[in-house]
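Hello K.,

You asked for the raw outputs rather than the summary table, so here they are, unedited. I folded two proteins back to back in the same session to keep the settings identical. This is the first:
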Amino acid sequence: MKNKITLIILIVLSVFMLVACQPDTLPPTGIYEREARQIDGLLLEEQYRAFLFFWETSNSDPESSGFGMARDRYPGASGVASIASVGFALAAIPIGIENGWITHDEGLERALGTLDTLLGMTRHHGFYFHFISMHTTERVWNSEVSVIDTALLVTGALFAGRYFGGEAYAKAIDIYDGIDWNWYMHPVSHRYYMSYSPETQQHTGAWDGFAEQLMMYVLGAGSNTHPTGDASYRVLKSDMSRRFAPYISQNNPDLNVDPFYYTFGGELFTHQYSHAYLDFRQVLDRDGLDWHENARRATQAAYNHAIDVSFRYRSLNANSWGVSASDGPNGYKAYGTPPKDRTDNMDGTVAPYAALASVIHLEEEAIRAAYHFKSFPDLWGTYGFKAAYNLGLHEGHHDPLLVGKVPYYSPDVIGIDKGITMLMIENYRSGFIWQVFMDIPEIQRGMELLGFQPR
């Protein structure tokens, strides 16, 4: 009898310890109550088609070494995945479940399989190659080991993991815990490097100003295994102080925009990627900086600039805007609008995702743009709006780089474009991405350590 009691006690203790060692396990879907409002039908269709891009074009073969890898673009670059696109593909799964586009079981199976693939891939101090094979996960295009693309991956993984809880959450945390953020940071300047090459075994470049990388500071500060502290964020604040200016219209003072922190090239996506996951609406940093308002002003400036230059560019006007990194008549480029330091990255190319992902800031303007984009048959396809278009210049204006290349319509959709559009439309509908992601203890800790406080 004594031995039997002892055995029961040991079993109970074992179960208790097993549960206690799990990283904040959650029950399946249902812990988060998503309340979505009705939205414009074309926006909803674009979100659905963006979801389908990830669900249908990702590697769904459970016998494949690349199960869950998401295409960089479609139909181009066949067989090539982007690690950032994989992050958006993971984030797409809860959206699909909550909208009834897939079942919970289908989504969980895809999420777990994708996370298993990621855990088995080649990594350097936890960081992934930018581009990999859809089928083998091996590096392609001699791509770099990327800090920002790894960050975009892990934000999507953490969001999906937190949503499902249990095994999925544990796997997502394993991926996150494997990243040594300090290895990718200069030990003296406290700036993140831009790139790492395994051939040279050297990092190159530096994130020496504000761009899309805000998530990196939060993820690094909140890390369970390799925390970075707040020095890198403080350095960022110092670096970006030299890029603070208003938008000044050359035609109409009513189009002027109050000063905001801008990026080197003025690309609109830089004010979107981190904001898709981090809810800056409710917080200010220790210096009182309002990142949500900063992004709103940048978006307003981009919109107003489209009006300002509509006399020159056929693609830009009050109903057609969204200049950002995208395909273009001369290849993929980081297009941008003032204020900016770079002056050679504007040719009138418009990226629909940049306008639609701005719907949280400029609702009516984004919806009008969606209907304008939809009026061009060559800009719409199975997976919604394609990457970009450029109608050229109005009569009397000339750009030798566009001769014989316009009108231009990208033949592809791009994974990261569809991803940011899908997430921002969901935040506009329900705030669901923010709700789940901001509930992650490591993210809360990272925000607190960086000095963010409730308004």
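The second followed immediately with the same parameters:
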Amino acid sequence: MHAYRLAVWLVLTCTGVWMLTQLRAEADDAKLFRAGAFAQDITPTKFPISVNGGMQDRQAMAAHDRLHARCLVLDDGKAQLALVVCDSCMIPRELLDEAKRQAAQATTMPVDRMLISATHTHTAPAVAGLFQTDPDADYQKFLASRIAEGIAKAHANLAPVKLGWGVAKDPTQLFNRRWKMKPGSIAADPFGKLTDQVKMNPGYQNPGLVEPAGPIDPEITLLSVQAPDTRPVALLANYSLHYVGGVSPLSADYFGAFAERIGGLLKADQAKPPFVGIMSNATSGDINNVNFAGAAPGKRAEYEQIRVVSESVAQAVLPVARKIEHRDGLSLAVAEKEIELAVRKPTAEEVARAREIVKNAKDGLLKSLPEIYARETILLADYPDKVKLKLQALRIGELGIVALPCEVFVEIGLEIKKKSPLKPTCIIALANGYNGYLPTPEQHKLGGYETWRARSSYLEADASPKITATVLELLNQVSK
């Protein structure tokens, strides 16, 4: 009898130990957070190619530096999320929807759990029609397939990691490029009106300068990914700087330079699999790297200013990145919503005036602003009365990310950050499509380039409050 009881006790004890081990294993699995990163080359293979980012069409004959779609896939054990930042000026929604469709086929990841954005380098192949540059159809197909391929490769690299986040600051590279000007110091806009109260890029120490028309946002929000042995896997940064320029196309601008430099500073440039640095564009619709209140700087060599900016931002990021506390057991959440907004369409009279201007252009070439905007007026006349925008809010642990398909004014980003239930929160602009500039209603009243009606600025003047209200609702959803 004693032997029987001992046998039963041993069986129950072993069973209990086994069950406890299983429960602990299941708990560990629940905490297992994985990530994979990959920098997919998206440099075109055929030249010449048209380049976005100017009033006139430009042709690139070669690449100054390589362009990439920098991909990061996250997996909390229950759901996955893809974050992609492409070296492109702006990418239309149709192209990104196709890239997501292809990526979903390759990975089984749902398309509504993918965020794909453009950096806004002004020296990348044209995939959207803007001013006098038309998209390159072959490169559009090439880009969609390469983005999908990059997501699939990042997905294949999934491995256990820990995540952390932080906020650095670098105000030294940011200036609001819209300036309030003295009465009578602003010329007529492209439509012949004298209603502008602000001027974009007014020139160094212009005697008409009064004050910047808005603030800056010096924050650089960081998402850091480390392997269990502390090897850096990826670092996603988010900064409100439009672009730098000063190079011939094609170039990834300071976005690409930062991605390379931060890897070197973190001593991760020889990591296997390769470390992926990523710089996303935040709310920079009215921000650039030029201090018009100061004296004009001396002439810099090509690419020098990009190196200056990327080094400054990377050095600001480095000490914060080194101190980030990395954790596992985090969860992911995504909320997505489509909203409909009105288009500021021209009247029949304005279209007739525009057609006359284009018709009278010398040699059929559109060189002046009135001529260029006349063409934009004609093209906008064929736009629908309303357009649909895709908005997203993401939560990674306690970090919030908002995705907007516009060139967003910094005031909007500051408001979203302040009101967001997630701290910190950052805004990735030019994401999941392109719907032009997004000024506030107050900035619309001040006028200036970013408000001039064109395919680069066509949403209703009250668009930003509606977008802000929607993304705050989404942030509240994912924060629960």
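Residues 2-31 form the longest helix (30 residues).

Happy to rerun anything if the numbers look odd on your end.

Regards,
P.
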